[in-house]
Amino acid sequence: MDYFAQQAINAVQLGSIYALIALGYSMVYGVLVMINFAHGDVFMVSSFFCFLLLLVAPVPFAVALVVVMLATAILGVCIERLAYRPLRNAPRVSAIITALGCGLVIQNTTLSLSPYSQRMPELLKPVVWKFGGVSVSSLQVLIVGISVALMLGLDFFIRKTRYGMAMRAISMDRITVPLMGIPTNAIISMTFALGGALGGAAGVLYGMAYPVIGASMGVLVGWKAFVAAVIGGIGNVRGAVLGGYLLGAVEVFTVTVLPSTYRDLVSYSLLLIILIFKPYGLLGRPAVQKV
Amino acid sequence: MSAQPLLQTRNVTQRFGGLTAVSDFSLEVAEGHAHGIIGPNGAGKTTAFNLITGIYKPTEGDILFRGKPITGLRPDEIARRGIGRTFQNIRLFRDLSVLDNVRIASDSRSRYSWPGAMVQLPSARREEKQTIGACEELLEQFGLAEVARERAGGLPYGSQRRLEIARAMALKPSLLLLDEPAAGMNSAETLKLVEFLGWLRDHFSVTMLLIEHHMQLVMTFCDRITVLDFGATIAEGGPEDIRTNAKVIEAYLGEEPDEG
Amino acid sequence: MLRLDRPPSRGLLLALLAAVLASCFAIEQFGLVDDYIRFILITLGINVILCVSLNLVNGWMGEFSVGHAGFMALGAYLSACVSVKWLGGANPLWMFPLAVISGGLAAGVVGFLLGLLSFKTRGDYLAIITLAFLMIVKSGIENISYVGGPRGFLGIGNETSLPWTAAWTILTLWAIRNLVYSRFGRAIVAVREDEIAATAMGVDTRKAKLVAFVVSSFFGGVAGALFAHQLQFINPGSFDIVKSTEILVMVYLGGIGSIAGSVLGATVFTVLTQVLQPLGTWRMVIMPLLLVMLMLFRPRGIMGLREWSWFVPRREFEEKEKSS
Questions:
Q1: What is the extent of the structural domain holding B224?
Q2: Which residues are within 8 A (CB) of B143 and not within 5 positions of it... i.e. 6 or more apart?
Q3: Does residue B176 sit in helix, strand or coil?
Q4: What is the domain partition of chain A in residue ranges?
Q5: Within its chain, how far is the Cα of C45 from the centroid?
Q6: pLDDT tens-digit profile of A167-195?
Q7: How many domains does chain C have?
Q8: Contacts of B171 in chain C (CB under 8 A)
Q9: Which residue among A56, A135, A161, B140 is the one 20 to 30 A from C311 at the CA level?
Q10: Closest alpha carbon within chain A to B46
Q11: Which of A67-81, C77-91, C309-323 has the weakest average pLDDT?
Q12: Which among B91, B99, B108 is the nearest to C197, CB-wise?
């Protein structure tokens, strides 16, 4: 029972990180109907931003978090402006390929600059609390706490502010929304900034939880978050969170019963099975086609 | 002379969630006739077409073609049985050539297998040559032979409409469904269309079911007319009966029946 | 008379192909080129097969499959099992083609399943399903110790010779060319253009999708088999998203829906890979950057949807002349 509880805590931690990254994928898909394949690598590079920052100036955790979130937000917007906006009206395939290309550029530039993985300097000295046979580290609490706070903040933003409403409007009808005086380009850039910021937070938190970071993190972790977003129903913010925690749980508990080489197999098989029975993800809904 | 109707729909109802698009739609089209479906916008006319051609499955009711049920069959199965159609907003394969558009419909009559195609079996080559020949002849009849190799999307509007009909005819259908063939045409063009439809009916011996808003076309060309409003059939009969029917006039809210 | 804007006569074409095959035999037999060039030529052939087979689904059918490396993996591993573990000592003259075909069939069967999934799913979601498929194949193989798991499969025979590669490349191009210019090719394109209109015109769209996926995956498996018997060592890492992306680059570079485009894309890619070799990992920064540039300025690729007349069947021209 203790072991189960311990693993559950790990699952919530991993799930929080997946959810933060998954939100980036879902928000962009919501407003642009585009899979931002570069997002996983943006997450990866944000860990490196944090690493570089700490190398240059050992700032406290809160500062590092804010700086990295800002930097990643800017990166996200840059990619959108340079690579995606010119292709707004091009065939769908071009955008996907460009995203893939951008991701590869980021991944391999990082790989070329840092062929070996790096160790993230310690940002906090964790305190460990014990409850019976279960130990909880303050780090884990922090990670989950910050993630949940950010998610709630995003939810509030989307549901209660004008900008959030504009985002939701654009996700429903990209053509007529600009005709109503909503600055679509600005809102779309804002979406990328938000997604980037959350991905940046995830990068910092991930680096604290699993201090060895490498260029392949984008594919290994980032793409898992994409799977999570799709499982939950891509384009759906609640779905991203659901998918994130679901995938986190599946992965952590899979590794308790099967060898770790089965982890990816199970995750992707779960995705396939869910898509076979619910082709738009757990909370997703299809677009209606008029004949 | 009371042969069974070519097409028969019996109490067909189509519901999309809470919306009833078509209710209790019962229609009989006799072989060799031209049957019109009219009604205000949103009356369910195109939905009726989509039901007959298998794009939707009716929530209730059956559809019979030559006495045999076709309810629930896939659209391509229904097309192969001899029902061809055009679309309200021309749905040509715009990036393909005129010839290829027609060939795709004509292909449904070929039999060769895909491995046979890949190794160029003589039977495959023979059927391909036959298809090309048949399609070229068809394009000749429709006055489109000159543009056979042109991109379909580049044709003028009128030619595109003609091509869409030619494509449907490549199926060698016994029933042709035309969805607003006169859309966007002025009176002069509409008259020529009536001639053209008459030629179609006689030359190919095809039965026709038309959706139209152009009253002069419907009144001069159709043998029988069904009127829909809000998914329900409010009248059915010959042109004269419909022209003077009070419910029909009311449904059009004061619009004169013989306005173009 | 040799013209570049008309397909050559059948006699001339056969003579040309015979000359190509004969030269390959000669090169192989007498060692007329050094090992490096030979390796590149074989890689080129394999890349052409990969490119034109993926083009069937991504180009002609207009979908976005990222899973092609998975079919390669299936073909590679199954053919290796056949040639190393099951028919180990047999005469390669009949054993090797059998191994390659088995690899293709294994991939084809799985392609069929993927095709079934494509009935109800299109576009982005189908792309995601192909991604899931790729990852499942890769991690599935990692967990099968019979074929070496993550460490890989060693000791595969060096069967992929220049003549064999040329033969398979020519066969693939010919077969896919024939398919594309048949009623099935037209059906596949109709599915891309407008699936609803296609069904209304009697096209069995489900069959079209199955044919596209099965043929595409079969030749993907063939390429994988040739690949395995060229490198003599394969591991799951060779068939990951990077590999799939390389094939995507070839397709979108050379031109979607074009056989000449596929050959062009594969050639340019193979050459570029070698030319950029000294750059090390920076090579994989330059390549995707070029790809992004390409998407910004020429999204359909160099030969997008256009064809070189030599690949077009002669009957398409005879009637072209008639109508002009």
A1: 1-82+173-260
A2: B162
A3: strand
A4: 2-277
A5: 9
A6: 888 888 777 887 888 888 899 999 999 99
A7: 1
A8: 201-202
A9: B140
A10: A291
A11: C309-323
A12: B91
Collect all residues with Cβ–Cβ distance below 8 Å to C289 and sequence separation of at least 6.
A101, A105
Instruction: Examine residue B88 and state whether it is found in any structural domain, yes or no.
Output: no
ipTM surpasses 0.95: no
Residue type, C186: R
What is the rounded distance in angstroms from the CA atom of residue A96 to the CA atom of residue A99?
A: 5
Task: State which residue of chain C sits closest to B52, comparing Cα positions.
Answer: C200
Mean pLDDT throughout B79-89? Answer: 95
Give the right CATH number for A2-277 from 1.20.58, 3.30.1450, 1.20.120, 1.10.3470: 1.10.3470
Average model confidence (pLDDT) across chain C? 91
| pLDDT tens readout for residues A140-149 | 999 999 999 9
In a domain? residue B112:
yes
Q: Which two tokens stand for residue A156?
A: 């509030």
β-bridge pairing A118-119 and B207-211: unpaired
Is residue B252 a part of any domain in this protein?
yes
Which contacts of A71-74 are long-range, i.e. CB under 8 A and separated by 24 or more positions?
A71/A46, A71/A200, A72/A42, A72/A43, A72/A45, A72/A46, A72/A196, A72/A197, A72/A199, A72/A200, A72/A203, A73/A192, A73/A193, A73/A194, A73/A196, A73/A197, A73/A200, A74/A193, A74/A196
The confidence band for C293, taking pLDDT boundaries of 50, 70 and 90, is confident
Using CA atoms, how far apart are residues B227 and B234, in angstroms rounded to an integer? 6
- Residues of B in Cβ contact (< 8 Å) with C198: 76, 93, 104
Domain that includes residue C60, residue range: 36-237
> pLDDT (tens digit, 9 = 90+) per residue, C185-211?
999 999 999 999 999 999 999 999 999
Are residue B73 and residue B195 in the same domain, yes or no? Answer: yes
DSSP string, A181-194: T--HHHHHHHHHHH
